[in-house]
């Protein structure tokens, strides 16, 4: 009952929820817990929605990156390319003694 009627509603557009605020994710988890309790299924019988979301998002990203004709492919690739080197810090030295004068 839960897997065919309730979970599809909770997981609709799941891969797109990447930036879902924590309080909304908690509300969805509460709905899942209450639904399972009403049906009489142990809460531990189903994975948390946040875990299922992570798996679905990763699967969607892999599919987008693998398909060069996918409309989002260029946009996703663009996110990974930048001109900044974040591993090096600014190596200019500041004369700290002049700060106190």
Give a written overview of the molecule.
52% of the residues lie in helices and 0% in strands. With 101 residues, it is mostly helical. The protein has one domain (2-82). The chain starts with a helix and ends in a 21-residue tail after the last helix.
Offer a few descriptive terms:
101 residues; 0% strand; mainly alpha; 4 helices
Would you kindly provide a brief summary of this structure?
With 101 residues, this protein is mostly helical. It has helices at residues 2-10, 22-39, 49-66, 73-80.
SSE layout and pairing:
Elements: H1 2-10, H2 22-39, H3 49-66, H4 73-80
Morphology call: elongated
Total number of helices: 4
In sequence order, what are the helices and strands, one letter per element? HHHH
- Which percent bin holds the helix content? 40-55%
End-to-end CA span: 75 Å
Low-confidence runs (pLDDT<50, min 5 residues)? Answer: none
Supply the helix-strand structural class: mainly alpha
Mean pLDDT across all amino acids: 78
